[in-house]
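User: tokens in, sequence out, please.
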């Protein structure tokens, strides 16, 4: 007599996560063997399971281990996108995305005053492949049409520019791109998904240096591409060939960091605004660049774009000293709590002079034209007590 079929409980359906904080903690979680935290799958390859496409083979370089897949699901969820991809660095995300979407003869529009590494890639590397570009003023939509060419394919922007913390006309950029059939790519590193989620505002792709806020602990280098499934898959296939994949242990650390993203960034938002207000009132400072200040030329735009859903104005600011380069050098040398180092978005507050770090590769005349003077200091506000940061800055200015 045949045994009755064994009834198996169907796997529980995943709940619909409403809030950002819930998505950060639970989206993409893989409770292997009941583990609350997804373990590190430290294996280069997995057993063949009948895959028919090379890109579906389970292999670290193909960015599809359980650690990768969980991160992809979480990143897509927090920005309201169809798909996501992690990479070995922020520049791997940026360069691979552009190489996947542009080909010989194509033309790229990009806002001026880009991060130095992106600027160099656009100006030095893309032309070698026959890909041309033009820079535009991100805050002057009326000037963009004149730079269009028959082979213009994409428009590249940054949510908050580095290091002057400018805010391009993002709403106009999306409308302009749609009306001319262009893809939109935006580097959302400085804002983070807590303050701005580009996909929800109509951008095609959101790019991150996950080294910064997404990880938040200054202990890995990583990148992310977030957007529509078809575009992300094109970029994934290009990344599979170029080899810029993220190691599973770095994936583990990035997932860990993401769980605390909201609480970290909201603290940094508040502290950066308090520090910016102190600096703006100090007689040694002639200009402070922070969108939370009413004096910022695009404060109203920042409040409209970043103020909803518990967001804020970001943890980055820069300022210029009245006595120029020598005063900036003294300030950086005198601080004791701020760490003198490049990068940003970690638990530690960092201070740097962009003319000697992030934008050192630009010719001095070009830096000056963009407003990146030798007396400019950039600050990434961390998680310390803000009163201690203000005291440290005061002592460095007045010591």
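Assistant: Sequence out:
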């Amino acid at each position: 007599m045949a045994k009755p079929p064994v009834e198996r409980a169907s796997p529980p359906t995943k709940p619909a996560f409403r809030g950002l904080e819930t998505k950060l903690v639970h989206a993409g979680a893989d409770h292997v063997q009941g583990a609350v935290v997804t373990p590190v799958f430290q294996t280069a390859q997995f057993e063949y399971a009948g895959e028919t496409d090379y890109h579906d083979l389970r292999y670290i370089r193909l960015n599809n281990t359980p650690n990768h897949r969980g991160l992809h699901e979480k990143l897509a969820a927090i920005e309201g996108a169809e798909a996501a991809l992690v990479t070995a660095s922020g520049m791997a995300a940026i360069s691979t995305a552009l190489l996947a979407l542009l080909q010989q003869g194509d033309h790229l529009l990009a806002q001026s005053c880009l991060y130095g590494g992106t600027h160099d890639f656009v100006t030095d590397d893309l032309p070698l492949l026959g890909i041309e570009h033009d820079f535009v003023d991100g805050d002057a939509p009326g000037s963009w049409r004149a730079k269009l060419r028959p082979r213009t394919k994409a428009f590249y922007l940054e949510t908050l520019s580095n290091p002057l913390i400018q805010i391009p006309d993002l709403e106009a950029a999306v409308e302009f791109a749609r009306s001319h059939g262009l893809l939109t790519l935006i580097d959302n590193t400085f804002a983070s998904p807590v303050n701005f989620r580009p996909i929800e505002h109509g951008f095609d792709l959101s790019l991150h240096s996950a080294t910064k806020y997404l990880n938040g602990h200054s202990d890995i280098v990583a990148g992310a591409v977030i957007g529509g499934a078809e575009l992300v898959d094109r970029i994934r296939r290009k990344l599979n060939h170029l080899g810029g994949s993220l190691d599973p242990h770095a994936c583990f650390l990035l997932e860990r960091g993401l769980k605390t993203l909201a609480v970290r960034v909201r603290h940094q938002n508040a502290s950066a605004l308090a520090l910016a207000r102190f600096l703006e009132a100090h007689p040694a400072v002639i200009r402070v660049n922070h969108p939370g200040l009413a004096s910022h030329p695009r404060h109203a735009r920042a409040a409209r774009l970043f103020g909803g859903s518990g967001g804020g104005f970001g943890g980055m600011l820069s300022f210029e000293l009245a006595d120029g380069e020598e005063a900036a050098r003294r300030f950086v040398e005198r601080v004791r709590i701020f760490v003198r180092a490049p990068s940003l978005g970690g638990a530690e507050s960092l201070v740097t002079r962009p003319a000697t770090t992030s934008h050192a590769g630009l010719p001095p005349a070009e830096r000056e034209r963009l407003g990146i003077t030798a007396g400019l200091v950039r600050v990434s506000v961390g998680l310390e007590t803000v009163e201690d940061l203000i005291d440290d800055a005061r002592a460095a200015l007045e010591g």
